[in-house]
Please model this.
Amino acid sequence: MHSPIFSHTIAPITTPHTNNAPASQHSDITHDCITRKSERVKKPPAYLKDYHCMTTHTSHSSNVANSNSLYPISQHLSYDKLTPKYKSLSLAITSNQEPSTYEEAEVYMKIPPGLAVSQPGLVCKLQKSLYGFKQASRQWNIKLTQTLVDAGYKQFFYDHSLFIKKQSKSFTAILVYVDDLVLTGNEIGEINSIKQDLDDKFKIKDLGDLKYFLGMEVARSNSGIHIYQRKYTMDLLRDFGYLDCKPLSTPFDYSQKLSKESGTILTDNTVYRQLIGRLLYLTNTRPDISYAVGRLSQFLNCATTSHLQTAFCVLRYLKGRPATGLFFSSTSNMHLTGFADADWATCADTRRSVSGYCFMLGNSLISWKSKKQTTVAKSSAEAEYRSLAVATCEASWLSFFKTVIHDMRKQFFPSSLE
Model:
């Protein structure tokens, strides 16, 4: 059931008395009812909470949907081609609003040993996050690592966040990010066993198949896997009030020469820092904004109005393609291809060049980078060679890692090899 929160309230308004008679003598007199607009705060009805209409037109200053927008987000985001099951999942992810600050979340813990309480059954409410303690993350990582090692897993030498367990005909891998874990393998029994061991020691929550992890959404089909940050992008646009903005076709004016003297220095650069920080995380699945965000991140300590307006242009670009991401084809070959380039003397302050490269495995993009060079190149040819040197290092690492993965496939998944 839901209350009619959009209905208007009709209430009688009494008029002032026009004579000196006591008010009690006029208590039986009825006056005409005058309609008035309710002062009650309007909210979207509860039965629409699972639909995207609650968030597509939300502005930064109000939570009320704005249906008069000239550029609604519905023109650039559609769920029509999704299956009913995945469409329901996408809408559920969108409607779930996670707390943005520690004050918005309530965290409780068991009574620590040695603390006397007045009655049993009480718990402690944390006033400060445990992650604020300097050794908290280190101690947690040590305990989790020891638990996995005791279960027969080995920490991958080239990536300490990866744990691997190899048996005669089974292979299981666990990828760790703080207290979030991703499990994969070809033996469901071993996967269920390690999940039970972790639940016995840490009380984990099993989220099932990988569909949403650290703000990244994962969609599977027969053609491949698509990884994107649609909800993260929508939240970013909503928090900065750009859900109803006019979209742009490019994230950055590449002819613009940004410098420390561009524009007026911001008196408070908190908004700029927050925006660049969130855009940096978005580059995990959006290589199309990597160059622009890399350029803007150089001015965190001296942000100006020009830098802020350029950062807002990136938001307007994201408005036009909020669900763009990475696609890994299931029919892709194992041929590694790389490209490298350099932009000579891009930085107007230091005259240093920018190196850029990208690598594809078959037709799937797997690695990319855009970064300012450490020294000044005297010519464009020198800048190109420095960019090639950086790309060669990345190619060597990818070739080695590709060999390791190929050996694992050959040992545990021989039927998947061509």
About this structure: The CA atoms of residues 220 and 226 lie 6 Å apart. Residues 1-31, 50-66 have pLDDT under 50 and may be disordered. The chain has nine helices and 13 strands. The first helix runs from residue 53 to 56.
